[in-house]
Amino acid sequence: MADTKSTGQNSLSGRRTLAGRCIIVGISGGIAAYKTPVLVRRLREAGAEVQVVMTENAHQFVTATTLQAVSGRPVRDSLWDAAAEAAMGHIELARWADLIIIAPATADTLSRLAAGRADDLLCTLRLASRAPVMLAPAMNNVMWDHPATMRNLQRLTEDGCVVLGPDSGPQACGETGPGRMQEPEALFSAVSDYCLSFTDWNSLATPVRSGSRSGNLQGKRVLITAGPTREAIDPVRYISNESSGKQGYALATAALRVGAEVTLISGPVNLTPPEGVETIPVTNARQMQDEVQALLPEADLFIGVAAVADYRPEEAKDQKIKKLQGGKKGLNLNLVENPDIIAGVSSSKHRPFVVGFAAETQDALQNAREKRKRKGMDMIVVNDVANPEIGFNSEENAVTVIWDGGEENLPQSSKMRLAEAIMDRIVACFVDQLATANPESVAE
Ligand code: PMT
Questions:
Q1: Ligand 1 neighbourhood includes 55 CB (under 6 angstroms)
Q2: Which atom of ligand 1 is nearest to the CA of 415?
Q3: How far is the CA of 225 from the centre of ligand 1 (A)?
Q4: pTM strictly above 0.70
């Protein structure tokens, strides 16, 4: 799915926001389901994209119409809904999610999740997603206390699920005790806190890395290039590459989320720019370079994610090149080198903190280490694009971040999640560099 997530106000130090987060709210069949629309509404108010997924039994307690109205999307409830699957297949939906919260999670649902079942859409999504899972159990207090339920919860906790509640008190069945679903506002707070405090979404047990988001980019200007460039051969043909812009747009969103003012210089892509990001469209490498150079004096950080064509045809013909007639075979294109945009940034008089990407197909780490030094970058993020699952025009990526003081391997994950982890590393290094250069500039 394209990263067409909207972003609103994204200051970490400002009001809480879930802008751009993609959240699946799962609902299973318990009376507490009547409260879940309030949770959905709160998540949406905070800027999250919400996809509601109901189990068959959930329909007994709350209507899909209500949930569609508050989420702004049709509810999903079946693996076998051909129209919904055609729009966004369940695996795509599983990848789309930044977080899955199941509220209420009934005893039966906990049992199916603990067993790793995939017998309905909700359980399948949980298995097929790398997103963190939060569970808000709700059931009769005797069911809650049953050793089978406790065993299931133990297993789910070991698997990394976060269990929220339940609360204790009067129950719909007339009994009193533990088993009430936490109130929607409490669940909303838990989701917000979680989203803002955990940055390594693949590792629920891992607390925020030291330095992570310790200094946000409030008041800093970040310039990002993304997408491919197109180098014209004639009015209808060009040299380009498969870059979709997804990784660069995700980085722009991640930079917004840490408070930066973000400008995105984008080659031709089919993505909606993140809201709140100034986006400047360009077509070829020379236009991209001109825009970068014009904005450079203002930039504190530069992140070159664009797949800039190294070469362009020496001459772009004014008219469409005709197929050769009269038995002549072959057509030679004379190529000349494009400017190296990032090398120009690194050597400029207004040098910002410089981060580049490296798309490699062999000896990735070694080549990237050399490339970082050759182009004078502070940091390079290398992806092995020989792997068809990641890199160009894929939903996921896997990278190694290399800087002066070390290297960090970030395993395969959605481009958005990786962008957040990369941004944490950038912020930490940038703040270190500022502190070294001018200790007063980072005073709290
Ligand atoms: O857009 P997606 O489909 O999401 O795919 C993401 C990506 C694979 C394009 C991205 O992760 C990536 O690897 N981007 C860099 C691609 C690239 O051009 O790599 P490179 O190794 O050729 O270039 C190294 C660095 O120099 C890059 O920061 C590039 O922007 C920069 N460069 C390259 C050539 C040039 N003439 N000028 C440059 O500034």
A1: no
A2: 4
A3: 9
A4: no
Tokens of 179: 């088993």
Mean pLDDT by 10 residues, the chain (444 residues): 31 49 95 98 93 98 98 96 87 91 98 97 94 94 95 90 90 87 94 63 30 63 98 98 95 88 96 89 98 97 98 97 82 96 96 97 96 98 95 92 91 85 90 80 51
> Is residue 165 lining ligand 1, measured as CB closer than 6 Å?
no
| Domain 221-316+334-442, architecture per CATH | 3-Layer(aba) Sandwich (3.40)
Q: How confident is the model at residue 2, as a pLDDT?
A: 32
> How does 268-302 read in b/e, with b if 16+ C-beta sit within 10 Å?
bbebebbbbbebbebbbbebbbebbeebbeebbbb
Atom of ligand 1 nearest to the CA of 393: 3
Same fold, 22-205 and 221-316+334-442: yes
Question: Strand locations in 298-436, DSSP E?
Answer: 301-304, 311-313, 335-337, 353-360, 379-384, 396-403, 406-414
Residue boundaries of the structural domains of the chain: 22-205, 221-316+334-442
Whether 285 is in the pocket of ligand 1, judged by its Cβ within 6 Å, is yes
Q: Which residues are catalytic?
A: 173
**443, burial (CB in 10 Å: exposed 0-12, middle 13-18, buried 19+):** exposed
**pLDDT given at position 177:** 84
Ligand 1 centroid–CA 227 distance in Å is 8
Fold of the 22-205 domain:
Rossmann fold (3.40.50)
